[in-house]
Amino acid sequence: MCGIIGYIGERQAPDILIDGLQKLEYRGYDSAGIAVFDHNSIKVIKTEGKVSALAKKKAAADLQEVHCGIGHTRWATHGEPSDINAHPHSVGRVTLVHNGIIENYAELGERYHPSPLSRTDTEIAAAVINACYHGDAVSAIFEAVNMFHGAYALCIMFEDQPDTVYAIRKSSPLIVAVGENETFLASDIPAILSHTKDYYLPEKGELAILTKQGVRFVGATGESIEKELKTADWDESAARKNGYDHYMLKEIFEQPAVIEQTILRYKNDFTIFENEDFDFEVKGNIHIVACGSAYHAGLMGKYAIEKLARVPVLVHIASEFRYDNPILHKDDLVIAISQSGETADTLAAVRLAKEHNVRTLGIVNVRGSSLSRLADHTLYTLAGPEIAVATTKAYLCQVCLLQLLAVRMAGKGLTMQEYKDMMVAFEALPAQIEQALSFCDDAKALAEKFKNAEHIFFMGRGQDSCLAMEASLKLKEISYIHSEAYAAGELKHGTISLITENTPIISIMTDRNRLPKTASNLKETGARGALITAVTYSDVRADAYTDEQISIPVMNEMTAPLIAAVKLQLLAYYVALSKGCDIDQPRNLAKSVTVE
Ligand code: G6P
Question: How far apart are CA 239 and CA 26, in angstroms?
Answer without folding.
Answer: 13
